[in-house]
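Homework help thread (please don't just give me the answer)

Our assignment gives two proteins as sequence + structure token strings and asks us to describe the second one. The first is just a warm-up. Here they are:
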Amino acid sequence: MGFRHNNILFNNHFHKDWQRRVRVWFDQPGAKKSRRNARSAKAAALGMRPLQSMRPAVRGQTLKYNTKLREGRGFTIGELKAAGVPKKYARSVGIPVDHRRKNRSEEGMKLNVDRLKAYQERLIVLPRRSKKNKNQKPDLSSVQTTRDVATAFPIPAGTVSEAPRAITAEEKEFQAYRTLRIARATQRHEGARIARQAKREEEAANAKK
């Protein structure tokens, strides 16, 4: 900002009572302990319910991350239908639903359907409290339950890289660039080649007449 004419110079009072306007984080250790206690209390209140929701395995975006798998927002309608899980029922047992995501490959859909089926096999749904089963407690001593969904159903690794190996003589002789150029030229001139062949056949048929 420049100065014009014979006006008074700026004299902003920025040094007044700065101590009250400084943000400090002296409560960080206490806040950390409070969050940990809150998580423990929530886990105890949930009983046998999983601490996290079941998440699908999805591909990362862009060319840099599309070889890696990560947790997605929710399962698609097609995945739920293939696994035999109704949409409303899924939300009530810790399976989120994402109606916007679409399945682009059979492999990705099969992976998530298998995860849903494995989750259903270990899922235990207790009946609602009513007058009939008010005092009945189910026996869960011999049942395999899980609290940590991420540990019980981990996201598999994406593309597994190959181990280093020696280049074979056949691979050394192979000309990748030339092969690609020939294939590209063949595909580009395919229409003209078919037209020339049809013209030759037509001329040969006319000559016979």
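The one we have to describe:
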Amino acid sequence: MKVIFDGVELELKDKEVVVGQDAPDFEVVDSELRKVTLKDTKGKRVFLAVPSVDTPVCDMEIRRFNKEAASLGDVTIYTISADLPFAQSRWCGNAGVDKVITLSDYNSRTFGKNYGVFIEEVALLSRAVFVVDENNKVIYVEYSKDASDHPDYDSVLELLRK
């Protein structure tokens, strides 16, 4: 799959995730550098893959999901980027983000590779949204064709409110 990043078309080399498959495992770290895997997450989950929390579109996306999180009940929202956990924590504090959990794929890149969003040339993740149900089945996938595009908020939120 190809993605536009900073105006340049790049190839995402890893396999795409599709609706209906089991959610791939991954190993990322939280703000305390503790390992987090798929097994450490429960219930209905949203995984937002973003290039960097410090960019304008990512900032708006995470703030939007943080705002919506209160009305989504038992849904947990995770933002995963290649940013260092310390930068993610600083950004969350400055942005007032307290309902979205940030996780870092800076070290192992397993989320990026297993979910088909790792951009090798820049060592960042492309923008995508994955919704996983209580049984670890993928029920929604959206890969942005351009990493600077916003996701389809309405479609994701409509699914989560069902």
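TA reply:
I won't write it for you, but here's a hint about the kind of observation we're looking for: DSSP finds four helices and eleven strands in the chain.
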